[in-house]
Amino acid sequence: MADKKPDDIDKEAAALFKEDDEKAVDELHEACKLDGVVKLIAGYIKNGFLAHDMPLIQALEKLEKKKFELIGIDPDTAEEAEDDDDPPTT
After folding, report:
1. Burial zone of 50 (CB within 10 Å; 0-12 exposed, 13-18 middle, 19+ buried)
2. DSSP label of 5
3. Looking at residue 81, what DSSP letter applies?
4. Helix crossing, 56-70 with 75-85: angle to 10°?
5. Contacts for 32 with CB less than 8 Å, ≥ 6 apart
6. Measured in Å, how far apart are the chain's first and last C-alpha atoms?
7. pLDDT by residue (tens digit) across 4-28?
8. How far, in Å, CA of 68 to CA of 35, rounded?
9. H or E stretch at 22
């Protein structure tokens, strides 16, 4: 087995640090996204659109309905179209 040269060790170390840096950046981006979601939901609770004790699925459905209303799509029609896209369950 050949001994590793200092240059090889430096390259391996640099690759490991790069992987760690990329992972840290990805985790920071995810944390920022989650922070935005938390602030958005807190705002909806504060203005009374969502209730603090509302089940998550109910809150998601209400937010999705609001999304469709904001972009000018009938929420009921949009939900029917989404149901058509779902694979049948047996």
Report:
1. buried
2. P
3. H
4. 110
5. none
6. 58
7. 676 777 888 778 788 888 889 999 9
8. 24
9. helix 6-46
Tokens of 52: 């603090």
**DSSP string over 25-79:** HHHHHHHHHHHHHHHHHHHHHHTTSS-TT--HHHHHHHHHHHHHHHTT--HHHHH
Q: What is the enclosing helix (H) or strand (E) of 82?
A: helix 75-85
Structure tokens at 54: 């509302």
User: How many Cα atoms occupy the beta-carbon half-sphere of 25 within 13 Å?
Assistant: 6
User: What is the residue type of 31?
Assistant: A
Note whether 45 and 52 are within 8 A (CB).
Answer: yes
For the chain, residues with pLDDT lower than 70 are: 1-4, 6, 79-90
Q: What is the 8-class DSSP label of residue 90?
A: -
Instruction: For residue 45, give the amino acid letter.
Output: I
pLDDT score, position 78: 76
**How far apart, in whole angstroms, are the C-alpha atoms of residue 65 and residue 57?**
12
